Amino acid sequence: MTMAAPDLKTMPIRKALTLLLIMVLPRTASAEPLLRPLTMDTISSFFRTANLRLLNLGSALMQGPVEGVQIWHNLTTFMASREGIVTLAYALIVGMIGTGAEWFYWTYAAPARRAIDAMDIRNPRLGRRLAFRRTALFLCGFLLFSVATLGSLAFFDWPEGAEHLVLAPIMIILLTRFMWIVADSLFAPGHHQRRLLDVGPAEARIWVTVIVGLTILVGGATIYAPLIQQAGSANAAEALQTVSVTLSAILIIVAVSASRKHRDSTQARTMPRSTLPVPFLRMAIIIAIYGLWLFSGDVIATLAVIIVLAVSSQLHLHRAVMFLWSDEPDHDLTEPHAHGQETGTAQVDSLAPSIILTLARYVFVIIAIIAAILALDIPMMEMATSSNPLRQFIVRLSEIALIALISHIVWLAVRLPIDHRLQKLIATSDPHGSVNANARLLTLLPLMRTTGGVILLAFFVISSLWSLGIDIGPLLAGAGVFGLALGFGAQALVRDVISGIFYLVEDVFRIGEYIEAGTHAKGTVERITLRTVALRHQNGPLYFVPYGSLGSIKNNSRDWSIDKFNIPLPVTTDSEQVRKIIKKVGEQMMQDPEIGSKIVEPLKSKVYGIEPGIKIFRCKFRCAPGNQFEIRVQAYKRIEAALRDAGIPFAAGTQVLMPLPPHGQMPTTTSTPAEASPSTP
């Protein structure tokens, strides 16, 4: 009797999570789950299994050489027979066909490769573009060789089992050549201008050697071990795998040590020492993975390798992508991190590298997940239709990952152009200058960025809940009811938000403008949020005023400003002479290179009033908003100097008592009361 698997869509979330903890993806023949509760029996069983595996490895290492000698004897006997000679002849023909096809390709592609090698590389981006072209040339030649070699195998009638003897070395050659092309393109030893990774020449040579060596060791063991086991020599196959894995671990340890020594020698004077023992951690991880393979076998060790590679790629992807997009001159790669800087960490103000970095991160994670599924021998085509709750949960997690990728790319497409535009506006704007048309962008762009982020976050949350099988209908209904209750209970908040929306839509004020609202709030607009506006008072305090409290707005920073000021002169001053002097001062100010461009209408004056002994002249000019104070100071200085040159004093500020002159005569004295009759003590 079988039990139907429960459906996550109709199951309470707590119960679903409980089942996820007790059920696993694959099951063994005995229907026992792969993940078991951690008990003393489990630990003991693990150690017994590890001990048995070590005994089997020891037995294989002891008996493997004997079986290997027997395999070699059988192989030499076969090659001396008629079937062996035919196999060797067919293999030589296959090799000649593949080599000839690639030689024919290089007769036409070699000039392009030589042109790339001889080209003068003027900047790093050109060098990396040429590196991709060179890699494409090599990959095309490799693809032609592979197709010709593998395709020609089908034209021959091979002796029974002989095609495996030919196919195995061909696969090793193809795999090694492909990995060498990839490694040579990434590290480019000897050609630092075409290097796609930020490493030194010594490290580049080390890692190319390591990649090729690991390909030969691991690939050879992976390909030949099943053939040897089919030949009836299981101990020899196990011994080959053991030797291959051991030599691979030793090779990696030696490479990491040599690379660390070279990096330490080049960074000793430029880079601060890390607080973590990174070299020790690397060695410990390598030894731990090798120990897992010894005690637990291929599956767990492969999963550990996949996890380490996935984490390492995530840590280094940012540096690699930004290094590819960096257009700075190449530094001396014998000291790749000179002056304490990493080239790959330089920020690049562009949308393309950020999107590519995001895609690369997700691609590497997806590759790691697929590799783990293959290592666990899980049928991928059955994942979507499986009734196992955990497999369904993994499929839904994949959907959420895809939604997260799309949301993140859209967020980058929204955020990065806005940030780039804001940086340009802030760099070109003068914080002490007048407010220009860019102030509206400085006001609206941050709000657009915040709004876009909130919308994308809400879309991601709702879509993720839907992918997990959670009914979002009641959630949306509850959110609507909550929003309605919030609207009734927080009327002031709603009023502030709505008022702010209309203020911004109607372009009432912008960042950097000086406004006056009501009787209390006035100052320069520094920051705008969804509910409040921050005003910097001229005395320094920063006021946060809700939009609903602003009321009518007086904007002192729009279009133009008119400034008026009075000049008191003696009542005997000739008004026409003063008007002409001030008009001439205004014309001179219009021609001044510093303040002339800020004046809209020149300085003018007229008689504003006459008081006892004082004649008041009203001066007026029109200028760009915010510049009236500076222009007024200049006007005072120039008017004072012009009046001094004309011999016209300013009024004394006291009333003048003058005797009545005879008919038709002007008064001759202008003495003050203090001068006419001094006070007596």
CATH class category name of the domain at 561-646: Alpha Beta
**Mean pLDDT score:** 76
Sheet having the most strands: 5 strands, antiparallel
Write down the oligomeric state.
single chain
**Order of H and E elements:** HHHHHHHHHHHHHHEEEEEEHEEHH
Total beta-strand segments: 8
The number of helical runs is 17
Percentage of residues in strands: 5-15%
Unreliable segments of 5+ consecutive residues: 1-35, 329-349, 668-681
Protein name: Mechanosensitive ion channel
GO cellular component, one term: plasma membrane
Domain Mechanosensitive ion channel MscS: 493-558
Keywords: Cell membrane, Membrane, Transmembrane, Transmembrane helix
Written account of the structure:
Residues 454-491 form the Mechanosensitive ion channel transmembrane helices 2/3 domain. One of its GO terms (molecular function) is mechanosensitive monoatomic ion channel activity. This is Mechanosensitive ion channel. Belongs to the MscS (TC 1.A.23) family. With 681 residues, this protein is α+β, with helices and mostly antiparallel strands. Among the domains are: 490-558, SH3 type barrels (Roll); 561-646, Alpha-Beta Plaits (2-Layer Sandwich). The protein has 17 helices and eight strands. Strand 7 (599-611) and strand 8 form a beta hairpin. 15% of the residues are buried.
Keywords:
three-stranded antiparallel beta sheet; alpha+beta; 681 residues; five-stranded antiparallel beta sheet; 9% strand; SH3 type barrels; Alpha-Beta Plaits
